[in-house]
Fold this protein.
Amino acid sequence: MSKKPYIRKQYWNEAEMGLWERAYLPEILRGLFITGGVFLRNMAKWMTGRKGALTTYYPEETRWDYAQANRGKHVLTRRPDGTPQCIACNMCATVCPAKVIEIEAGFDPADTAHPKFPIRFEIDYSRCVFCGLCVEACPEDAIRMAKETPNLPVTDRSAMWLGKEELLEWQPQDDVAKPYPPAPPRMPNGARE
Amino acid sequence: MIADLVISIVFIGYAISVLMGFGTILTWVERKQAAVMSDRIGANRAYIRIPFTQVKLVWWGLFHGMADGLKMLLKEDFKPRTYDWYAYAVAPWVVFTPVLLVFAVIPFGGMITPAQLWAPLAGFFGDRSWPMMIANLDAGILIVFAFSGLTVIGAMLAGWSSSNKFSLLGALRAGSQMISYELVLALTVLGLILIYGTVNLDAMVRHQSGTVLGFLPAWGIVYQPFAASLFLAAAIAENKRIPFDLPEAESELIAGYYTEYSAMKMGLFMFAEFIEIAIIGALFTTLFLGGYNLPYMGDAGFAFPGGASLALPHGAVVVTQLVVFLAKVFLVCSFQILIRWTLPRFRYDQVLTFAWKFMFPLALANFCVTAVALWWLRA
């Protein structure tokens, strides 16, 4: 039985080592100086109360450089008087590929322009895929996505549902797409002028 | 007699608590140092909540070691269906016990005279004094090698009795690697033994408290800088840590010779490894870094090279020596961790080639040069 001797393959970019590299110890020391230098620099930062790490201490700390168009937490926009712009048409819930939006519609005969309004508007962030189709589908510009992410890390799965109150929290002072004039005053009996 | 017993018990308690403390702290140091070296934050989520309050003590992740220990104690202890269950059960202890025993001959302080520490103690101890080590044996460094050579038996037993091919491969690797590097380790120390003319570790430390050339502290690393680096490399290989962790290389052998161990048995292997880091630190400190003494310091106080001297009270000397020893050991441990997180792993054939064709001849050459130089100087 003849066996071919093993010949090591030669690569075109084989590393060439001089005598200094072959001596091994100097290069080891160089590597140790690099890692030790990084350690001392970071340690000095920690000692003087600065942050000596590149990682983000999520969720206590979030990155500041989210893209402007980042699809994060959903927000429900409001009319000037503060009521949600949503007309509970269920188009977002229909288009949602993850089926995470739940809307319960209510009827308000006093508001003749928008008699339908959402009693409940809930999103399950444990299943949301942040695709943004709900924003595309909305005929009223009632749902948008802010660039900040919702505060997802929780210990309970049921705590990942955000309701109408949390989604309405978004209060921009100026918005190019929608100026927010001050809400018109109300009559003492609650009706509008 | 009774006084000897009491002193021995105190020293043994101190030694055990120091080793256990180092073993626990080093798990944390390893995590945090690795994190800081690579621009990360490191483990910091385990906390202790003060009961009935919302105060959570995190303390830079110090409690992760406790969480690890609890996890290992509470986990299910899987056992392989092995034909040699006795060897399987005894192997972790064969690894763990010699590691603790090595510390018996390492001096962690100079002479202690209890009567001078606190006057009422004179009634019990008289004015006798003891060297601060558990066993002041003339064999010294030979005992160290004898006991540290025993751990390879535990590794081989573990690999053999697990009836697992990965374990067996790991054990074979551990056996050949540890025996090869033990030889290098002993050879590097031979030069120091020639210089000091003794194998008693306490006498070695006393020898290092003088000066050489008038101003340099007479540390082993000054006499034998080459042997010091060889010793450290061989000791890390002996401890089977990266870059020499072939016996337990995760990507090749899962966990090597302790693949089949779980829960606290596996914890014993890990703990033995961490304690051995401290042991290597203590040995390196004792042999090459002047042991428990600061430069120019002896049992009476400082004696600076210019001729000035500073006498210290006995209590201050004892405390300084204990603290200096711990600090030096900690620094050497930290350096070992730095090496572990800097260098990539060798290939297995490279490990043995490195031992037999690189370090062994160098250690031998170092020994020969030392012998010739000593012969030249003393003739």
